[in-house]
Design a protein that fits this description.
Chain lengths: 312, 645
């Protein structure tokens, strides 16, 4: 801290004044040269130049190229302090990592951009990491790449893969529990007594008449999930849509129209092991839809039908 | 698990040849090896060949199996050609005798062709799977047809006789049947079976190969166009084709013509069947019953058991007029032509809607609904309200304001209420009277029919308000797809089904895409895809990324080709049915000594006295296993027919 103050004190008054003024406008505001002249109140470029140079030397100003125009950006004193403590290579590497923002940057890209030797880059990264200036994150898109970003940044969705990923691994358990929640919610809508509609009690089957809107929309499901606070990540309608699509692939839901879904009876039957009014059926005809998850051939069964027997 | 042991073995034909010589009784371990080796051989041949030869061997004997074998492997053959392939134990006479009995059982069709310039006629024999399919389905044919008439036991007896003899006339049956049975009853069962279309008069069409019939008609129509005609050849062909089509369908439809079969008895003036007309089972009609069953099963699992019972009635009353399960035109080779294939498909679509007798309304259904089915309180017309939160209608009833002249000031419109009102209005379009005392009221039936018509699977279609028809061309492909999916789910697991459906929906996908849409781990996806490819469920497409098509840089995409996949499943199921039959034969062979002993006349009925306890146990085990096999066969058949027809 003392060092920092010392550094700050070493600034000329004019430089300090300009820096404060720039920071006042906001941390990430970019200044063109005329704007800088206006802000500082110094009309002559010859007078302005040494001040800017001084700030640049102290890392208190950053040069940014935007649309082929050179612009200046004020840097926080602490940030500047960080940079001045680094070696030249380190600060070079750091600046590229900083520029990559939330997307992060691949070590190979750093090497190519900085033109430094691999060893040097690795050494810099190691030292930056140990000082907690940068961190390495795992990318879902490129699981083998080592990607760096500033320590205080939250990786973007592209890198983390969205809500389905925890520590860049597909969180199957989380997805499955959400699928169950979505299914249960929709089944409650689809059948008059929800998924307990077909629990096989002597009660008669009750169905909704064809004109009843017994489907659930994406928004309904999202609202329900948000209201019930079962998840701690933010979900978008698109996320719910992909959940519903998975349920459609599992034949647990059917799509009525865009973003409107209904639970299939088949899935309810699986859930409750409900066989329908079999007793009333005079023919106990075999149907794959009744038996598909009940069949388990035993080892000693000599007549067991194995579907892969024919395939060599 | 509900057992479905309904298949019974048909009585083997009297004219069938000697039974298979028993394999020498080798010890058990060696026996297993033989099974393995033989099944290896069977795998390399076509599954249908395996099925039909196995079936012919077990029901009709070795010689019949041989003829089925050569005809299936080599296509059509003349007697001379069959004889040249025959083993030394079979001479021309026995070949001919076997052919005759096979023709009688509709296992073989024939056509006479003149060869060369001499005009010498040669009869060529074709394999006809219909006869063997009838044997395969014999149990359910007997049961189903029995169920459709008033006297099931007599009907099953008649059907059983027809099955074992191939065809039967009424007079023959009356002569041979028990004199105590009333003639009138027998005749009435015959009439019912014929009226339902379950029995038809046997004609030359039954023995003529469809393709040969078509070719003959086409060539005749083509040659009928004068050579001097100025038409282009393409036009000539098209004209011949359309003429032949008309005649072809006419000939095939004439088979189902009842006027030749049914007459009025001059003595009693009751309807009767022409006495000397040989009758046979109409297999296409039976397939319609199976098709209806499959659809009812599907409706039961997709919509509910009560609508499915309504659907069952709908299918049954339209069955006689519904389109054939196998369109004969598809057997002619015309499908090779895309335009023809399209027009055949359109024709089918039109038929199922326009044919008289294929449409029905709720009134028709209500007539046939069983007494036990009570439709009251099965449909709910409004959403459950407790989930909606506080009901706005629950507020205190507003006091009606009346002016002096009696005019009631209407309450201020409440937007929410209005919405409710609108929903109620919708209800009014289609009132379902819950208070109606009639459990089969038209409005209730209509509600169920609408339910069937409004789901994502088009079980029914409404052409005019209140008038429905069954869109077979739309619903059957869905039945196929769903059955396929569930077979995949039951054999390869639910994750396989998820990936399979994901690929089908998105047509051409990469592994990453599956990863992000099916939300599964890459490792799991890769193993599942491996097994899916083994079963031909999906195909791989390689997309090279570099000019040298390096495999390491290529991207692999997956897609599903349904025709291919279903065909594979069809064959797989056929092979499994065949394998079960094969196992049954092995079982009988292994226990042949015991079985011959148990079947001896002096032992029958006194098994407990004359057989050793161990033999009794063995016999019980053999019987149980056979029953088990038949159950499995009938289950496999119910899957197979979906892909086969």
């Amino acid at each position: 801290m003392g060092n920092l103050l010392e550094n700050a004190l070493q600034l000329s008054d004019q430089a300090k004044d300009l820096h404060t003024k720039m920071l006042d406008k906001g941390p990430s505001v970019l200044f063109t040269q005329p704007e800088l002249q206006e802000t500082s109140g110094i009309a002559s470029l010859n007078d302005l130049m040494p001040i800017v140079q001084e700030l640049l030397d102290k890392n208190l100003i950053k040069l940014v190229k935007q649309n082929n125009e050179l612009k200046f950006q004020a840097v926080d004193i602490f940030e500047a302090q960080k940079k001045s403590a680094m070696s030249a290579e380190e600060s070079l590497v750091y600046s590229y990592i900083e520029a990559s923002g939330r997307e992060g940057i691949w070590t190979k890209t750093i090497k190519a951009k900085t033109n430094l030797h691999q060893h040097v880059v690795l050494k810099c990264l190691k030292s930056l990491e140990s000082q907690r200036y940068v961190k390495s994150v795992k990318s879902v898109k490129y699981p083998t790449r080592k990607i760096y970003m500033l320590y205080n940044l939250q990786p973007s969705i592209d890198v983390t893969g969205g809500p389905w990923f925890t520590d860049s691994e597909l969180d199957v358990e989380f997805i499955n529990s959400l699928l169950t929640i979505v299914w249960r919610f929709a089944s409650d809508r689809t059948f008059p007594n929800g998924f307990k509609n077909f629990s096989g009690n002597d009660k008669k089957e009750l169905l909704y008449a064809p004109n009843v809107k017994n489907y659930s929309t994406i928004q309904d499901i999202l609202d329900f999930i948000v209201a019930s606070q079962v998840v701690n990540v933010e979900l978008t309608p698109a996320n719910i849509r992909s959940l519903c699509d998975v349920l459609v692939y599992d034949d647990k839901m059917e799509k009525i129209s865009h973003d409107c879904y209904r639970v299939t009876l088949e899935s309810v039957r699986q859930m409750t092991q409900y066989g329908g009014l079999i007793s009333n059926d005079d023919d106990g005809e075999f149907s794959i839809f009744d038996y598909f998850n009940l069949i388990a051939p035993s080892q000693n069964d000599k007549e067991a039908v194995y579907f892969d027997e024919w395939i060599l | 698990m509900a057992s479905v042991a309904q298949s019974s073995t048909p009585v083997p034909n009297a004219s069938s040849t000697t039974p298979a010589p028993n394999a020498s009784n080798t010890p058990g371990a060696q026996q297993e090896d033989i099974v393995m080796v033989s099944s290896l051989e069977q795998r390399t041949l076509s599954p249908e060949w395996f099925l039909y030869t196995e079936l012919a061997k077990s029901l009709l004997g070795e010689r019949a199996a041989f003829i089925v074998d050569v005809l299936l492997s080599l296509g059509r053959l003349s007697v001379g050609e069959i004889c040249s392939k025959a083993p030394s134990s079979m001479n021309a006479r026995s070949v001919k005798a076997t052919l005759v009995s096979l023709i009688q059982l509709r296992c073989i069709r024939y056509v006479e062709e003149s060869v060369g310039s001499s005009g010498r006629a040669i009869t060529y024999y074709y394999f006809n799977e219909e006869g063997l399919l009838l044997f395969l389905y014999s149990g359910s044919v007997i049961e189903e047809l029995g169920r459709r008439v008033s006297n099931p036991s007599m009907a099953s007896q008649i059907v059983q006789n027809i099955l074992s003899l191939g065809s039967l006339t009424l007079n023959d049956y009356l002569q041979s049947c028990d004199p105590q049975i009333s003639k009138r009853d027998v005749i009435s069962v015959f009439v019912q079976l014929c009226e339902g279309g379950f029995l038809t008069a046997i004609t030359k069409v039954h023995y003529t190969p469809v393709k040969a019939l078509w070719d003959g008609l086409y060539i005749k129509a083509y040659n009928a166009i004068p050579r001097t005609s100025t038409m282009s050849d393409l036009k000539k062909r098209n004209e011949a084709k359309s003429k032949a089509k008309v005649e072809f369908l006419q000939i095939l439809n004439s088979v189902n013509d009842l006027s030749k079969v049914l007459t009025t008895d001059p003595q009693t003036s009751l309807r009767t069947v022409v006495g000397n007309l040989p009758l046979t089972i109409n297999f296409a009609r039976f397939l319609k019953i199976r098709r209806s069953k499959q659809l009812v099963q599907l409706a039961r699992t997709r919509i509910g058991s009560i609508p499915s019972q309504v659907y069952n009635i709908a299918l049954q009353i339209t069955e006689p007029k519904s389109p054939e399960p196998v369109d004969p035109l598809t057997l002619t080779g015309l499908l090779q032509d895309l335009d023809e294939a399209k027009s055949i498909h359109e024709e089918q679509e039109l038929l199922e809607e326009k044919n008289a007798g294929t449409t029905f309304s709720a009134i028709d259904i209500a007539k046939y609904l069983p007494e036990s089915l009570d439709l009251r309180n099965t449909l709910k017309t409004s959403l459950r309200t407790n989930k909606r939160g506080p009901n706005p209608n629950d507020q205190l009833p507003t006091k009606k304001l009346k002016t002096e002249d009696g005019f009631v000031i209407p309450p201020l419109p409440n937007p929410q209420q209005e919405q409710e009102q609108q929903e109620d209005d919708n209800d009014d379009d289609d009132p379902i009277d819950e208070d109606d005392g009639n459990p089969h009221s038209v409005s209730l039936v209509n509600g169920h029919l609408k339910l069937l018509a409004s789901t994502s699977i088009p079980f029914l279609k409404e052409i005019r308000p209140g008038v429905f028809y069954v869109p077979y061309t739309k619903v059957l492909p869905i039945l196929k797809t769903l059955t396929y999916d569930y077979i995949i789910a039951s054999t390869l697991g639910p994750s396989a089904m998820r990936i399979c459906r994901c690929i089908r929906e998105n047509s051409l996908v990469s592994e990453k895409f599956i990863n992000s849409t099916a939300l599964m781990k890459e490792k799991d996806i890769r193993t599942t895809i491996g097994s899916l490819i083994k079963y031909n469920v999906i195909e791989i497409q390689e997309v090279p990324r570099t000019a040298d098509r390096a495999a390491s840089r290529a991207v692999f995409l997956f897609r599903s080709k349904e025709r291919h996949a279903y065909n594979f499943m069809n064959q797989n199921l056929a092979w499994n049915v065949a394998n079960l039959l094969h196992k049954k034969e092995r079982l009988k062979e292994d226990n042949s000594t015991l079985l011959t002993k148990a079947n001896r006349d002096d032992v029958k009925g006194k098994e407990t006295e004359l057989l050793l306890p161990s033999e009794l146990n063995q016999l019980k085990m053999v019987n149980e296993r056979e029953l088990n096999i038949w159950t499995r066969v009938s289950r496999m058949l119910s899957l197979w027919e979906i892909f086969k027809f």
